[in-house]
Amino acid sequence: MLEPLRQGLPPLDPAAVSDAASCSLPARYEAVREARQFARKICDQWSAEDRFDDVCLVVSELVTNALRHGLPAGAPRSAEQGAPVRLHLMRWTGRLVCAVRDPSHGSPVARAADDFSAESGRGLLLVESFSDGWGWQPMRSGRGKVVWALFLLRPHGA
């Protein structure tokens, strides 16, 4: 169900990019709320409100995973900490991509869905369920990875 995890973004023509926005997120869990607020603002600007609920849920899960699993063990989670996580939103004609970058080299790991009473561990299952595709790839610079989710957008007026 979640394979293959390590894959690049589907072919998208860079010349067709119509909009892009990004924000830096500090190493504290309040950044998840900031990321959702940023996603709402951008979806409103891009007239992508019909996918906002899905995008917001996926942004929350990807940023939470980056903060929980993508930062070095014992890294401080304070307001003074820099911004090691970055959220990127990109829109092509008919497509929106949400990408979260973190400094970890480890691949995302989906847990088995057999423990329905668990309070955590289903984030990647939610990402798969609410997006139209997702994956991850290491940064070309060798510093970290990007986990992304793709959303198909309805044509205007449809």
Briefly say what this structure is.
By secondary structure, the chain is of the alpha+beta class.
Instruction: Classify the helix fraction into a percent range.
Output: 25-40%
Number of strands: 5
Strand content: 15-25%
Order of helices and strands: EHHEEHEE
Instruction: Please state the overall shape, judged from the principal axes of the Cα atoms.
Output: globular
Mean residue pLDDT: 81
**Count of helical stretches:** 3
Largest sheet: 5 strands, antiparallel
Task: State the separation between the terminal residues, measured CA to CA.
Answer: 31 Å
Arrangement of strands in the largest sheet: 1-2-3-5-4
Task: Classify the oligomer.
Answer: single chain
Structure classification: alpha+beta
Poorly predicted sequence stretches spanning 5 or more consecutive residues: 1-6
Give the C-alpha Rg. Answer: 15 Å
